[in-house]
Amino acid sequence: MTRTELYHDKPTTFFWKGTLLFFLTCILLGIGLMQYSQNQIKIDAPKIDLGRKVVVHLPNGEEVFTYEKLIIQKEGKIIYKGERNTLDFTGGTIEHKDWE
After folding, report:
1. Phi-psi region of 76 (alpha: psi -120 to 50; beta: other; left: phi over 0)
2. Domain ranges in the chain?
3. pLDDT digit of tens for each residue in the chain (100 aa)?
């Protein structure tokens, strides 16, 4: 066997390495694009207008900070109707005040 046959006649694995590298690159590129596209989707909750900010001063001296549309005045009673509960604030006074 001559040196030429020894070093140059061997089948090269370049074809398999190139194919494998191409498929790995495509897979990584696909994963990256999918991740990017999913991060671009943003779903925001709709903005609900609750009215002006108010402070309800209760007869026992406590204060309740809430919004105007959550307070209902019915038959001389002041009722707080929140998302999960309903409270009776009868006897309290409502003050329209911007609180933080």
Report:
1. left
2. 3-40, 53-96
3. 677 777 776 666 667 788 899 999 999 999 999 999 999 988 888 888 888 999 999 999 999 999 999 998 888 888 999 888 899 988 888 888 888 7
The first and second tokens of residue 20, run together, are 């494998």
Type of residue numbered 56? V
What are the Cα distances from residue 63, in Å, to 5, 23, 95? 95, 66, 10
Which of the 8 DSSP states describes residue 99?
A: -
**Is 64:56 a contact under the CB 8 Å cutoff?**
yes
Backbone angles phi, psi at 60, to 5 degrees: -85, 5
Strands (E), the chain: 53-57, 63-67, 71-74, 77-81, 86-88, 93-96
Element (H, E) at 21: helix 14-40
Report the C-alpha gap between 70 and 49 in whole angstroms.
11
